[in-house]
Amino acid sequence: MANYFSSNFTLGILGGGQLGKMMLYETRKFDITTHVIDPSAEAPSRISCDYFEQGDLMDFDTVYNFGKNVDVLTFEIEGVNIEALAKLESEGKKVYPSSETLKNIQDKGVQKNFYKLHKIPTAPFLVFKTKDDLTEAIVRKELTLPFVWKSCTGGYDGNGVSVIRTEEDIIPLAEGSCIAEKLIPFKNELAVIVVRNPSGEVKTYPVVEMEFHPEANQVEYVICPARIDDKVAKNARDIAVKVSEAFKHVGLLAVEMFQTEDDEIIVNEVAPRPHNSGHYSIEGSYTNQFEQQIRAILDLPLGNTDSKVGGIMVNLVGAEGHTGEVVYENIEKIMAMQGVTPHIYGKKQTRPFRKMGHVTIVNEDIDKAREIAEEVKNNIKVISK
Amino acid sequence: MANYFSSNFTLGILGGGQLGKMMLYETRKFDITTHVIDPSAEAPSRISCDYFEQGDLMDFDTVYNFGKNVDVLTFEIEGVNIEALAKLESEGKKVYPSSETLKNIQDKGVQKNFYKLHKIPTAPFLVFKTKDDLTEAIVRKELTLPFVWKSCTGGYDGNGVSVIRTEEDIIPLAEGSCIAEKLIPFKNELAVIVVRNPSGEVKTYPVVEMEFHPEANQVEYVICPARIDDKVAKNARDIAVKVSEAFKHVGLLAVEMFQTEDDEIIVNEVAPRPHNSGHYSIEGSYTNQFEQQIRAILDLPLGNTDSKVGGIMVNLVGAEGHTGEVVYENIEKIMAMQGVTPHIYGKKQTRPFRKMGHVTIVNEDIDKAREIAEEVKNNIKVISK
Q: Which GO terms describe its cellular component (chains A, B) (predicted)?
């Protein structure tokens, strides 16, 4: 086993956003040397790493040269140059997750076909190379409304997804490859984080539930554990393991799923990295997802994925009508509430709907946590000066 | 209330050791700008702060000039220039804990007299300006063996403390001011961390217990909660609050205490900062001591001091006979044990008894945690290459 702790071993991380930043708490805890690269000079990970580089993650030479100087390479964002990863692997560099896994995930059309090939339950879909192909399919009645449109590439945080109910909804859609998915009514949106190390040890975190705002169709709370039947939860965790195995995935894989009206579990999409749905784990779990990611990609033993206490996560997004230097209004009010921890990502400028941080609420009693979460939501505001 | 989060507000920290390093996880979490100063260019806090300076913490000008450029000044080590703190305070700078508090703590003779003045139970003692004065007192029979000798200044991690049983034990003692304390037999060594913010909110953490190795008179495990009667625990927490109030302390105050054979609590000494006895809180508590320190000195609401689960802390100290580049032997073995988290401080060189890190073991069942802690202790070794 390599000596990772206070040694010359170097972990490289492509991407320096909030996920990378939270990963760095763990590399500091273990005193693992890190190199980070991000397109922004003001990336949240700019400090706490041992070496920071500004660069384009989609550029072959940039990623290749960055990867050459580290011992293990990982990423905290899917939008990275896969060819560079493959070249590094061919030269013997350890890249986790692998370029092969990422290739099957990065493009949503490829990802959906992968599920079909591996008999993983997912909503029926069609893939289109261009927006023209999509509209033509509608004209030919090969595709009928309503459906869910998803851009094959570049989608993030709900961008690149639209529910198409009328022909007018098609007008603003982006050009480029996309998928059209059958709109399946569901009871719950769930997620399971699976983790695997190169030695083959596999663990799943408990199922989390996304609770939506009753009117605005937006996730308000991520709740762990999900308030669902044990049988459904077991099925969700089993399917998540199956997905992870199919991808031969190493590291964290967040599997987003729907629980249909008749309690079937279908896979929506995956993210091969730490995930918003696992943020609760920093305060809630025996091993938080960021430490777990480090353990996994360095082939260390995986930590306990159980929860110490119930956890709820609320995203802190920029309020509408506010653009400029950020102020977290009432943050001291929510910090006075029981079991409440704000996480501020470090973006100096807010703008409407920008993800600026999150708040975790932990409590032995998940219903009590849910009450406090609502109080948090009603008080905190991300505004500009 | 000042805007601390992603703002121009700057917190200054005197000292960049492991305590500062762990405090920086929390300033990063809240995105609070930090300046750190330490005599060593390789200080564990050298990264993760926004600005690092190498400098002598006992030098007036160095501390004064460093403090001038921050909004709130704190320290993670007692050995800092108090006159510089006082001057900064006189100019309106917020310094927490205050120079006045530190003055009553930094010198152990002053600290003991402070307890006497404030009727805080402590072992009977005599203060001596020099070693000559001490030996003279023995000759004059004003002081009788056995007693506990403590250097008034510069003691750290058990350095500067000796049990004097024979006249020969006196020979190796350092020159300089010291105290001689009555040797009181005790059942348990306990500690309580008290926290207070400038607004006067006060909380105590649960009592922790130091379990000693049966032969080598060394702390092996710090256990939270202490395995003592509720009545004794309540008394210990009450006395700790009284101590903190007497010092008009702001921030964390770790109060080390003895539980005597007849269940009296007497105060041994205090540390006005995060403390080894509170390290378990990172994994064990709703609010860890480092986050709590940030909340306190910024006059934010204090967090819940209760434990989520039982916690045990084992120090990682350099093994005897090993000096040089550090290797954490069997670290992957202990990471495979349930609820085990190593913390590696980032010192590249080990030497016998150097504090290199710590390991936390958490479990709902404290007896189970204690079993695992013993396994950890029996496996991990801090050696050189």
A: cytosol
